[in-house]
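Help wanted!
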Amino acid sequence: MTQVADTRQAPPGMMLASLWGGIALISSPKEDKESFSSSQSLPYWSTGSFHQSTTTMSQKSQVIQLYKNLLYLGREYPMGYEYFREKLKNAFLKNRNETDPRRITEMIARGEYVIKEIEALYMLRKYRTLKRRYYDTEDANKQATN
Amino acid sequence: MSLRVLVGVKRVIDYAVKIRVRPDKLGVVTDGVKHSMNPFDEIAIEEAVRLKEKKIAKEVVAISCGPTQAQETIRTALAMGADRGIHVEIPAKEVEKLEPLHVAKIMAKLVEQEKADLVVLGKQAIDDDSNATAQMTAALLDWPQATFASKIEKTDGELQVTREVDGGLEIIKVKLPAVVSADLRLNEPRYATLPNIMKAKKKKIAKMKAADLGVDTSPHFEVLDVADPPVREAGIKVEDVDTLVTKLKDAGRI
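Answered by r_m:
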């Protein structure tokens, strides 16, 4: 297993900001719809595998499932569940009039990507806290003197 | 040689919650406080599930000794990939007094009943930090133990385990059946997402009491006092040696 070498804590704000950048991407519609042509390469978040099978669920139920999954994930959010719910709701509401199925698929993929990012955030947070608590005696001393 | 793996999981106060001492100073506040699976137990479940994915294990059984809410912890384990669960119900009042020895006796009994080949436990619980259940279970079963495991590999009929010890890493071979306790760097546990939790509702959780297994859970210890650790004062940086000496004199140290 690759070990997390960084013993300093990245400012949580940075991690969270990049997350909300991801969610903001879901919410901001592209300025020029014609720019989304097949000649464009797929954005990086589209290449991951889906949680839900795209063949058996309608797009509407996929979006609803995505929303539920994100909401479930948000229960542990460091800045509070209410904050997360608020942002999530707004991000989804901004796109509620989208009709192009290709764009919706892209947005769903972005949502899946955000799920992965949040899982990584939680995992890292837990790992670093446990490492500090149980393994780093020098870091524990350093923290007390800050 | 496909193994049946028993994994012990414990419902503890969530690692991120700020702990408060109860007014009666005999414990910590648990009412209305967020609880979740012990992080080391998550690592234990993850390892067992990975063994199943590698076809080394054939079945993973998640076991928890605790109050009714422990079933949520077992559900999380099932969502992470365990096949079925066993809930040993301990009345809410007695949960606090449950000791590693009781849990070890329960595990040993279940190992006999389930005919398990491998027991994986978290190395310690973040609430009592006993670090004893795995060792005691191994002793009761007269099985070899590989504690503080940071890597597990299977060779014929044996496990090669890398242990994290004070001096660094130690690699040992233990014959199966064995007890292993999971350390932080064994793996990175998967998150139990909502779809997986939903699917896990179909999996069975067997319920029983400690008495059904012939284990007496009366306490051997009595907690006399619980207090906050002393607040560590911040260190002070000084400009030069003279200031340091003056400050030490002021503090009555020299």
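OP: Thanks! One thing I noticed: Chain A has a mean pLDDT of 73.
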